[in-house]
Amino acid sequence: MYNQGAVEGAANKELGSRVFVYEVVGLRQSEETDQTNYPIRKSGSVFIRVPYNRMNQEMRRITRLGGKIVSIQPLTGLESVNGKASFGNANSEVSELATSGETANSEGNGKATPVNTNSEVKGFAQSPVEEQPKNKDKKGNTMTQAKAKKDAHGDVPVNIYRPNAPYIGKVVSNEPLVKEGGIGIVQHLKFDISGGDLKYIEGQSIGIIPPGVDKNGKPEKLRLYSIASTRHGDDVDDKTVSLCVRQLEYKHPETNETVYGVCSTHLCFLEPGADVKITGPVGKEMLLPQDPDAKVIMMATGTGIAPMRAYLWRQFKDAERAANPEYQFKGFSWLIFGVPTTPNILYKEELEEIQQKYPDNFRLTYAISREQKNPQGGRMYIQDRVAEHADELWQLIKDEKTHTYICGLRGMEDGIDAALTAAAAKEGVTWSDYQKELKKAHRWHVETY
Fold first, then answer.
1. Which residues make up each annotated binding site?
2. Residue 225 annotated in active site
3. How far is CA 10 from the centre of its chain?
């Protein structure tokens, strides 16, 4: 795990010392994970306090861990009226992979030392910015700004089971999601967790530790997968957790031989009744707002549909609504889903059933790259759909009740930004600046890999 405690400790020794805040994206968890060859997901920005005399050292460390410094600001420049420093996205995590020093071969359902909800990254941002300055468009009208509002999620479960003491679950079912004629292997896996204390909420992830050892003879490290079920599980009985897993397959750049992902292949071919090592849950970046009147924009590619499925089930499924009388969704959700072919539309029947039953509350838009054409005659990707509906999406995004979620392949982000840049520019708004305000307000949620 990337440990910023030492930096923060140094920064806090003297109240009057010069301290700067680094906004960093793309951090890997540790120097050890820096050597891995599987994708490491990012979940928004991390803010690190750094004393003046350690700035160069910290820059080198961030670079070594794969991070990119987005901005550097003096601490005094971020102080609010009550004298307390305020930063954006205090809940961004970097502890998404196995913590260095923890082995993954422990047996049994023992739990590691209990942790609190902020233990993934020690929180130095105690509260979000209460209010951002008002910007005005070309006509002088005050723009809808991304005011930070605290979501009352209560206690978010984090790291109940750690890599050195994983939960041993059982495979309940392992069902194919790709229809005949589709591309690749994608499975919906359901695990029995009734024998332990594993709890989670929508938008979180769990770690899976595959059996065996890596090329260095060490136990395999965990891989993270977004949870595809609500907190109550697919059977709404609080006894299961589900994943949506694609078998990773690629060509080796030197030998050109086909390589299959270790963990994804392990999961895709598990039989019911098999044991599986589970850690977590982790993640606070992708949590669904509690507001039943919220507006939710979802953009997903492939297995990035996993958290979106959990959101939609919680919002619209009859059994879920019955299980959550305190949360009866009355808002609006829009899913833009990118896949290569029609048989690759994961959970197609579920999605279209919700669309049919709640036409005023749920909108479903597909981008089927190998079957549909964009206006230029090329393949229709998710960013093309965003461009097609950019003006409408921009109007939604300006609403303070709107949260936007992006999950899937990292390559789609640039196209999404380009489309929204053009839409915002029509009102004299710089999208990159506005997006930063959305992130600070916890209304722009990204988990890509």
1. 226, 246, 303, 339-340, 369-370, 408-409, 447
2. yes
3. 31
Active site residue 226: yes
Q: Which of 202, 242, 407, 437 is catalytic?
A: 407
Query: What is the Cα–Cα distance from 107 to 411, expressed in whole angstroms?
Result: 38
The answer to whether 30 is a known catalytic residue is: no
**Out of 45, 226, 264, 333, which one is annotated catalytic?**
226
The rounded distance, in Å, linking the Cα atoms of 290 and 152 is 7
Which pair of tokens denotes residue 93?
């995590």
Q: What pLDDT does 49 receive?
A: 75
**Report field, pTM of the whole predicted structure over 0.90:** no
Residues making up the binding site for NADP(+):
226, 246, 303, 339-340, 369-370, 408-409, 447
pLDDT in tens, 385-440: 999 999 999 999 999 999 999 999 888 899 999 999 999 999 999 999 999 999 99
262-281 pLDDT, tens digit per residue, is 999 999 999 999 999 999 99
User: What pLDDT was estimated at residue 284?
Assistant: 92
Query: Catalytic annotation on 311?
Result: no
Question: pLDDT of 69-111, one tens digit each?
Answer: 877 777 643 333 333 333 333 333 333 333 323 334 444 555 4
**Residue 449 bears catalytic tag:** yes
* Options 167, 225, 347, 366, the catalytic residue: 225
- Domains by residue range for the chain, with CATH: 167-282 (2.40.30.10), 295-448 (3.40.50.80)
